[in-house]
């Protein structure tokens, strides 16, 4: 068995004019495809070859863990964007108000965090603790916010394209965020948005 490149949840041109088709195709068809290929090379001939991506995320170390994290993050990233994001759900608006004052406060926090992250890194909107209070955190390429009690809600990929920051704000998928916020998944085990079902790690 091998991992496959997950399909985009929309057409490559669906995010225009905020994020160009060329950028989407490069990031999905080249960057993410290469990441999945490296992941398959790393698991080949090992017990991890029969495991789910989530099992690798939670159990592997080193280069394998980094490739699994980046593959997961890129898929999560595509679901964090939507051609028609819709209105901000009331429970999420209330949580944003508590944590950041208002939507503009969240935007400033995201932009400030992105300015401190190297290209290829990530800025995340997460919920933390039993109260699921919102926060903005950053990770490097190949890392995820998987500390106990942390639930990723949205992911912003830090890229050199000038359109990127404005695009994320225009396309932020609030419905995906509220689904993650209200979900029942254990905080240390965020669900995989898409991907092949794989058997658990053999014992």
From TrEMBL:
Top EC group: oxidoreductase
Alphabetized Pfam families for the sequence: Sod_Fe_C (PF02777), Sod_Fe_N (PF00081)
UniProt domain Manganese/iron superoxide dismutase N-terminal: residue ranges: 2-81
Domain Manganese/iron superoxide dismutase C-terminal residues, every copy: 91-156
Catalytic activity: 2 superoxide + 2 H(+) = H2O2 + O2
Domain of life: Bacteria
MF (Gene Ontology): metal ion binding; superoxide dismutase activity
EC number: 1.15.1.1
Gene3D superfamilies documented for this protein: Fe,Mn superoxide dismutase (SOD) domain, Iron/manganese superoxide dismutase, C-terminal domain
The keyword Nucleotide-binding is annotated on this UniProt entry: no
The family this protein is said to belong to: Belongs to the iron/manganese superoxide dismutase family.
Protein name, entry field: Superoxide dismutase
Organism, scientific name: Halomonas alimentaria
